[in-house]
Specification:
The protein has 189 residues and is of the alpha/beta class. The protein has seven helices and five strands, in the order ββαβααββαααα. The chain is 41% helix and 16% strand. It has a five-stranded mixed β-sheet, sandwiched between helices.
Length: 189
């Protein structure tokens, strides 16, 4: 039986896409040091990211856009990104273990939600790392385009620095989530 772990990154920020990953690990090629991505240093996450890409039996990274987040709401957009990641796996998984307490409704395979699964289940830990590193890299790219917002420092979260930049420069269309209250209050376009 092929079991995939699934997790997302980017539910809380005021900017950027929400990214999900699904991973089927290869028991013949173990990866040491897997854990909840939030409990690992950036250097360790980057190293494990490469290990996962090289050693996993299958992996997929998917996302939901800022427009989808604003239209559907962040929870539904997160679940949609998870569903997209699971569907893209090749080979397909027989079961999904999903971090959290919600399961995407349209899945074609059995699934189980596991609260705190990113720190308990290796497959979910691997998915957590792929999602977090992928999303962080998107925010580094946004920082190159919009250095005045400081995306590389806060990754889109509502830090003092980010809120000050929002107040000074306004939200960026297609980047900032207008359905989130701190952005909605400054919605100028």
């Amino acid at each position: 039986m092929l079991i995939c772990g699934v997790d997302e990154a980017g539910r809380g920020p005021l900017a950027g896409k929400v990214v999900a990953a699904a991973v089927i690990l290869d028991p013949a090629r173990p990866i040491h040091g897997l854990n909840d991505s939030k409990k690992l240093s950036e250097k360790k996450r980057d190293w494990l990211y490469q290990e996962i890409l090289e050693k996993a039996l299958a992996y997929a990274i998917a996302e939901s856009s800022v427009a989808e987040i604003d239209t559907l709401n962040i929870l539904q957009a997160s679940l949609l990104a998870m569903q997209r990641a699971i569907i893209q796996l090749n080979p397909q998984a027989n079961k999904a273990l999903i971090d959290g307490n919600k399961i995407p409704q349209q899945l074609l395979i059995p699934a189980e939600a596991i609260i705190g699964g990113d720190g308990l289940i290796a497959e979910i830990s691997a998915a957590s790392i792929l999602a977090k590193v992928s999303r962080d890299r998107q925010l580094y790219a946004l920082d190159q385009l919009y250095p005045e917002y400081g995306f590389a420092k806060h990754k889109g979260y509502g830090t003092k620095l980010h809120l000050e930049a929002l107040a000074k420069y306004g939200p960026i269309a297609g980047i900032h989530r207008i359905s989130f209250a701190p952005v909605k209050q400054l919605y100028l376009f």
